[in-house]
Amino acid sequence: MGNMHKPRNIQTASNSLQDECIRVPKVYDWVTDTLTVTKTVPFSREQLEAIESAMDDPNRRPLRIISRTPKTPPLFPLNQSNPKLYENKGFFCEQVGEKRDVTVPVGGEFVDAQLVDLLFNTDIKIEVVDRHGECVTEFIVDAAAMESFVLCFPDGTDLLCRISKIFSRISSGTILLNNPVPEGFRLEVTFCVDVQVEAEVKLEVLAKFCSPRDNNLTAPESVVTPCPPVEFPEQCPSIFPAKSCECQASGEATGRTGDEATEEGVASVLVDICPNCSLVDSVFEFTFDDRDSEDGLKNFTFVADSFDPETLECKELKDCTKLIVSGEGHTTDGHRLDFNLALVAGDKGDQFQLILINDRFHRHPRVVFDSGIVHVLEGSLEIEDCVNFDDLKYKV
Fold first, then answer.
1. b/e per residue, 220-236, with b = 16+ CB within 10 A?
2. For residue 258, is it within any domain?
3. What span, in angstroms and rounded, lies between the C-alpha atoms of 288 and 371?
4. Spatial distance between the Cα atoms of 213 and 106, rounded to a whole number of angstroms
5. What span, in angstroms and rounded, lies between the C-alpha atoms of 329 and 283?
6. Which residue range(s) make up the domain with 171?
7. For 27-74, what is each residue's pLDDT tens digit?
8. Which of 58, 125, 214, 350 has its CA 20 to 30 Å from the CA of residue 327?
């Protein structure tokens, strides 16, 4: 995509780029995830007696149940990942057991990785207060979540695990109006977690900001005992860093299906592909309004669940730019399908086409739906070029 960029005039400063050897913590993998657990919390006999006594006083009713979570460190600086900083803070994250070597499919090929189990724990303060905010009773509840992560975690690297945010919600209701008092309540706790694998190495590098990948790898049940390395841990380029996008697309657009469409109707798309030039957090939603009443209504909505970075392609055509990407998703009625999406943004009008198939990797995939080439009548699509390392030219 280097030919898509306008020429840039870069002045050479007195402190120009040159070869440097630095000692740095190198990131081998970086994963973020959200874990939610629900537990039933019973009131003790003493707590019930205090609540019932307050409920007997009309001036104190109604009562409210309040949950308070510990304050977590900010996302930055990243050196706040040190587990020792969490001691006596009311929450912690730790590895349970040893890591195991696994082989997982990534981008159409099998790569070696490591499987680890992580425990996330926190103390939640529960308060029951009256209508004036005065405490009736209070106590501490612990909540924990266990999750398995597939990581690039070779021997010689360190696992840094932290909890960046904790949310709590009383899903059974927070208001106590009258006696009899319920025996307990349901508490929902959500952990925002950040997992990194690092090692101190000596590198000669040129760097840019990177984004965490989704926690979307599944390990098989069989595992292999790891072997110790004899040198710096090997990088996992198939896993991390994730491939950067060559362009990004966004917008909402509507138009009638094309001449080659499998159904006649109105098609609409909502796209935000490669926000911040990374496929992480990309969004694609397609809605079809069937206008052919003779064969029965076939309205549906399709939502993308994942995007294949190997299929992402950007093309600079005459008077327009084209983005192509494939992936997997689901319809609102539960059908899982693969998709091929093409977006065109240009001076003479925007276009898009969606093809839904039952299995794009099958030798003879079956097309379930084809919108044909849709000419946008309402809304617009915007495709912008992303600057990556292939676009940079250095003077040797």
1. eeeeeebeeeeeebeeb
2. yes
3. 9
4. 13
5. 11
6. 23-203
7. 999 999 999 999 999 999 999 999 999 999 999 989 999 999 998 887
8. 350
